[in-house]
Amino acid sequence: MGEVDEAFVQALEHRPKLSFTEAEGIPLIDLSVLANPNGNIDKLVSEIGNACKNWGFFQVINHGVALETRQKVENASRKFFAQTSEEKRKVSRDEKRALGYYDTEHTKNVRDWKEVFDFSLQDPTLAPASPAPDDKEITEWHNQWPDFPPEIREACEEYAKELEKLAYKLMELIALSLGLPENRFNSFFEDQTTFLRLNHYPPCPSPDLALGVGRHKDSGALTVLAQDDVGGLEVKRKSDGEWVLVKPTPDAFIINVGDIIQVWSNDAYESVEHRVMVNSEKERFSVPFFFNPAHYTMVKPLDELTNEKNPPKYRPYNWGKFITTRKLSNFKKLDVENIQIYHFKLQELSNKLEGALSINS
Ligand SMILES: O=C(O)CCC(=O)C(=O)O
Ligand SMILES: [Fe+2]
């Protein structure tokens, strides 16, 4: 099949299997008890803790986000992506503008079969001007709203606010599940760098060779994802390393632990690899909400979760510098692996550190 450009072709070992065996899927958690002021949340906290520990991924239902709010974004997203490239490129992301439309993202140096539109929850969002460790200059990320469809801005802003409430609730439940006070994580998000992404995966002539998104872990704290009814998201099951399809569940959100929770929890909860398969017939849409802390956050294992027997497994890293290093890497092909949390891991892999730091220079 010569129809897919070489840039999209995955190495043999990373190509998707197009037939699946029926496998145990990620946990489904009912959040309805949160709507009841006298509800006992102990059972819920333990379900969330088990899901974070054993899977790093789960779905939630009865989450309090109105279906209409979600549908408005999905409809606006369909209308936006149905336009010509020329129209979409009027709001392009580039080295200077961190947010907007983009269709050449690479994951692990292979191009993804997708196009995206990024916008941040807080407009503007403050972030470092460059990845250089000594550069203290701060810049503002501004949203770039397209003219069409006219309702896209309001739909996205309303959705982002609703999702933020859900993300805080989930972080509170995760804090409780780690034996921490409910509000332990809240202050990290005061000047948050949270952003949302409209993903469009067009039909692909060779779904056996390319991926919508190559295998990766999410680098932020927590991801709350809405997927449509097409399916394609696969999660690497912790118990046996098999890729498991996350079957679409109507009106559910898919939640996953990101790298920052992994570090905060000192590996009690792990960020899990996932990827997106594409489909030769159907296009697919999804909307992740990436809940990310303030740029000045020094990410490190929480003092309460470490002690002499369980010493910190990571040295602190600056979240703003991490994310700007990642963003910049989208615009130049790296000859080294992109920055990853294991580069900050103590003891193990310390020789990898040199390679990671050279990205910054
Ligand atoms: O589209 C999806 O289902 C997941 C996308 C994803 O993993 C990401 O954008 O980080
Ligand atoms: Fe992801």
TrEMBL record:
It comes from the Eukaryota. This is 2-oxoglutarate and Fe(II)-dependent oxygenase superfamily protein. It comes from Melia azedarach (Chinaberry tree). The lineage of its organism: Eukaryota, Viridiplantae, Streptophyta, Embryophyta, Tracheophyta.
